[in-house]
Amino acid sequence: MGILIKILSCLVVVVILVNPLTFAQVSEITPSQKAEDNAAVYYEKAFSLLKEYSVEETKEWEAVIKNGWKEENKKLEDILKENEPAMQEMEKGLGLEKCDFTYNKPYSYLIEKAIPNIYKSRLLSNLIILKGSMLEKNNDFEHAIEAYLSLLKFSQHITQGVSLVETMISVAIINMAYRAL
Fold first, then answer.
1. How far apart, in Å, are the Cα atoms of 61 and each of 28, 125, 127, 130?
2. Count of Cβ atoms closer than 10 Å to residue 77 Cβ
């Protein structure tokens, strides 16, 4: 499995480096002209509000994501509370139609294109799944489903970019959401 990931990573780099966008492709990209109409503004702010966690700390999250919320996971509620501002900022972006992480900056090659932070996208998605799991445990199924469905909108926003990396991030988030649903 490790060799497959290395090969795929190399392929992604090669595709990005040798796949220049033509002027016509760049002109087809129509990002929002006003910052408040661009979901990326809110996602970037959400990323900046996220707290940092070690790999050890996130291992417990993965168990909850895989097996569901249990009483012994009560301490994760504190993690959700301290990251609530980031999740609220994400919600602002979810209500918008367009998402452009390049902020209307022209580029000729995909290597020049800004993409969403992969680590922070995954971290934020994991927090949303944790929140949904906690809501399920509290029998608040309506809000739990809303949390999971918000990841589908988040992934749709990320795929508004044109790179393979953005598509891969989006697919990973979609898989997380579908597993939770």
1. 40, 11, 8, 7
2. 13
Q: H helices of the chain, where?
A: 2-18, 23-28, 39-49, 55-67, 76-82, 84-94, 118-137, 141-158, 164-180
Question: Which residue's entry shows tokens 């022209």?
Answer: 106
Is there a contact between 117 and 43 (Cβ–Cβ < 8 Å)? no
Q: Is 119 helix (H, G, I), strand (E, B) or coil?
A: helix
Structural element, H or E, at residue 33: none
pTM above 0.90, yes or no: no
pLDDT digit string, tens, across residues 76-110: 999 999 999 999 999 999 999 999 888 877 777 66
CA distance 7 to 101: 27
- Closest by alpha carbon to 31, among 105, 90, 88? 105
